């Protein structure tokens, strides 16, 4: 067995740090940020030497795509988090991403906790501010490119770069203004959730005890997103709203960060009928790894084994062509931030009361650690090269080809 930390598919990284073109203490308030790498003891999923060679070959040659991440770096002191968020300036973990093996990242920002003008999040002005600041930072460096077309995704890997796809977990900020979808598309947003955990003008989220389904305005928004070329997601939507959205959409719909409720009975995970409907429409279900989400009774301690049990269950249910990965991780104390923001993020609505709590998800701690270990697990379990190619990127590319406007 080997515990090698050699990493293939490193990107051309020149050492850039977020906002280095500005002056700390003059242009913005400086905070001590969490370590990007080695915040906790690194974990390399154990494989044999020949298997590790295959892993590195896959990382080098195939397209590696995370359908859901938050690549921002949190402050080390969580007591500063609210103040930090009110500044409206998020740092990106460029150095760690250069070692992540990823070619494409769906960046979902942090707009459920965008608190520049409100403590509730999802306000239009705050979201626009957040997008502008992050894309300004990205425009000042060369390793990460803003991806707006399918060709950008292919180009990034060839150039030793990472394609950064703008995504939002909810449409709450559009209120009742359809044209705001056009504005967000213009800013670079290419996938959007219908609703976060609380209901909005489009439908009901998983937190709502009564799910009335997709509203009339929600159906109009679905049509507009189809026309614009915004991939529609239902990860946080209630079950009826999810099914209504899948039915109303002319194009495939995604579940870009969830798991199977059949394995762990919480509203944050999806029941079989929603998973099947998503697949039947041509969509993809990407498995979630945020702390205390994809747990199973076989693996009550959340780690890569429980996460991959959700993957295998979903693949067996709907086929290997409709499964991918959206780990939903970040750089910093993810468990700590869930504890701090339990109300804003509807954590209590999404988790079982009797879960076995962990300090972090071993093997899937941050966006840089996830995919090398996912690929190692798949190689170790004997998945074919073609199967791996599909689930680490190919299935997502197929959905994007069907949903992004030409």
From TrEMBL:
Name assigned to this protein: Diguanylate cyclase
One of the Pfam families matching this protein, by short name: Peptidase_M19
Origin organism lineage: Bacteria, Bacillati, Bacillota, Bacilli, Bacillales
InterPro entries for the chain: Metal_Hydrolase, Pept_M19
Recorded GO MF terms: metallodipeptidase activity
One of the protein's GO biological processes: proteolysis
């Amino acid at each position: 067995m080997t515990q090698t930390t050699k990493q293939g598919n490193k990107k051309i990284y020149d050492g850039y740090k977020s906002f280095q073109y500005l002056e700390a203490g003059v242009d913005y308030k400086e905070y001590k940020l969490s370590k990007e790498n080695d915040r906790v003891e690194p974990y390399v999923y154990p494989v044999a030497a020949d298997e590790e060679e295959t892993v590195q070959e896959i990382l080098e040659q195939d397209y590696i795509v995370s359908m859901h991440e938050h690549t921002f770096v949190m402050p080390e002191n969580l007591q500063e988090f609210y103040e930090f968020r009110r500044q409206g300036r998020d740092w990106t973990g460029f150095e760690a991403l250069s070692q992540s093996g990823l070619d494409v990242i769906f960046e979902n920002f942090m707009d459920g906790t965008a608190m520049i003008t409100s403590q509730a999040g999802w306000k239009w002005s705050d979201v626009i501010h957040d997008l502008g600041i992050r894309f300004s930072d990205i425009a000042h460096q060369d390793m990460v490119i803003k991806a707006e077309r399918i060709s950008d995704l292919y180009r990034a890997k060839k150039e030793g770069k990472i394609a950064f796809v703008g995504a939002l977990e909810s449409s709450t900020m559009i209120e009742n203004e359809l044209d705001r979808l056009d504005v967000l598309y213009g800013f670079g947003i290419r996938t959007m959730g219908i609703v976060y955990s609380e209901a909005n003008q489009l439908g009901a989220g998983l937190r709502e005890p009564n799910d009335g389904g997709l509203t009339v305005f929600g159906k109009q928004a679905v049509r507009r997103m189809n026309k614009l070329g915004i991939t529609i997601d239902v990860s946080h939507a209630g079950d009826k709203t999810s099914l209504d959205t899948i039915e109303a959409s002319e194009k495939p719909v995604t579940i870009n960060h969830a798991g199977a409720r059949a394995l762990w009975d919480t509203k944050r995970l999806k029941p079989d009928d929603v998973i099947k409907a998503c697949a039947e429409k041509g969509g993809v279900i990407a498995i979630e790894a945020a702390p205390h989400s994809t747990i199973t009774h076989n693996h009550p301690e959340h780690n890569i084994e429980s996460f991959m049990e959700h993957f295998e269950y979903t693949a067996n249910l709907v086929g290997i062509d409709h499964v991918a990965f959206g780990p939903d991780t970040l750089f910093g104390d993810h468990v700590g931030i869930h504890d701090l923001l339990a109300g804003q993020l509807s954590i209590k609505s999404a988790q079982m009361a009797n879960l076995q709590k962990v300090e972090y998800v071993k093997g899937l701690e941050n966006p840089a650690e996830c995919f090398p270990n996912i690929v190692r697990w798949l190689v170790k379990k004997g998945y074919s090269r073609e199967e791996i190619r599909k689930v680490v990127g190919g299935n997502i590319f197929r959905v994007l080809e069907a949903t992004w406007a030409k």
